[in-house]
Amino acid sequence: MEKLEVPEMPWTREDAFHPPAGLAGLRAGPPARVRLPSGQTAWLVARHADARALLSDPRLSSDETRPHYPQLIPVPPATGTLSFLRMDDPDHGRLRRLLTTEFTVRRINAMRPGIERTVAESLDAMVEKGPPADLVRDFALPIPSQVICQLLGVPYDDHEFFQDRSAKILETNAPLEEGARAMGELTDYLASLVDAKVREPGDDLLGRVAPGIAEGRLTRDELVFMAGLLLIAGHETTANMIALGTLTLLVTGEWAALCADPARVGATTEELLRHLTVVQFGLVRTLLEPVTVDGVTMEAGDGVVISLTAANRDGAHFPDPDAFDPDRAQGHHVAFGFGMHQCLGAALARLEMDVVFTALAARLPGLRLAVPVEDVPFRHDQFVYGLDALPVAW
Amino acid sequence: MRLRADLDRCRGAGQCVFTAPDLFDQDDAAGLVVVLDPAPGPDRQPLAARAADACPNRALTLSPD
Q: Do B28 and A103 touch (CB under 8 A)?
């Protein structure tokens, strides 16, 4: 009976540029129980300070194989190997450590000239064809896809295959079998690629990690799931930040400000990360021990959803939180998460956005929407929020 | 003020280098933090404090000598 009184987790946006209004109400109080679309109940954490505290608290587990682990949507029971995103230490640390040198700020910044070339080529191709153009298909998606392919050593010629499968994996509304099939096909593809890297390593990330299988540092399956995580996270999040970011700049008038002062790009990128928070439904964890937050005690075994979207709109940390303002006093947004699982690719995402918005503003200062904003298709039902298309002219 | 890094906590997320590139680097062997200025002067202390606050693994401390 008691379960019937648990309210549903706020899920649907009333306004495409803002989180669901119900999150503000939840942020006004301590963590509260919500019913997830999966049917499970979990504590929803909405405050910025609580989100940071819990994401760095070792009493919270990311191990999806634990009983009653909370899932946002219905998923098949976890079987076999998962990516290290869904593990605890020591396995998470062992696998992540194989990658940290690949993603240091210095290594990533050395990629700038290559990314600038990729961006210039995409812009040339788009300008030659248009206007109008679909900024998602012609620009926002190809750039991060090419960058992550080159870094990992995945052939970009296969982009239609993996873009399609990863979009299906991230869909929250699709039939269960469809997501599972897409996952299976992507896994088979990456397994063949990993086997090829074992035979002939080559000078790319997967090639550098692959010898670790023979050295006992990781298993073949662990590398296959690592490759899947890096490939999906490496292109979906950044692509949607570029598309949604461009739209946000156009509708707020900040596009003109950026074109007039290109040095605003760093602050603009950080504010886009905070304001848009494309990992839109939050991060799930389970409690290994009782944890008390704001006077509420959550028990061992309880599920927790930490809403990054709600935390990044917390007025206690970001005054006038719903305003898009690159000039705001710097805070610590949690768009990349927090704690030991904080996004490994944050420096790469920031670099890509920096290069992309700089080049786009320099080349197409007259950029504008080619359709009314009401007609722009938003991806409400994807784990990574964004746009299906962005028709633009210049 | 003394700026210290706990290498057992550091995971190489690089937030410190992003926040204060003059104060931090990451080593080539493991991507872990290298403190470039362990005794930041008053002009650098606010940035050092901000970097410590940004660390997702609470690996940095800024304390009196």
A: no
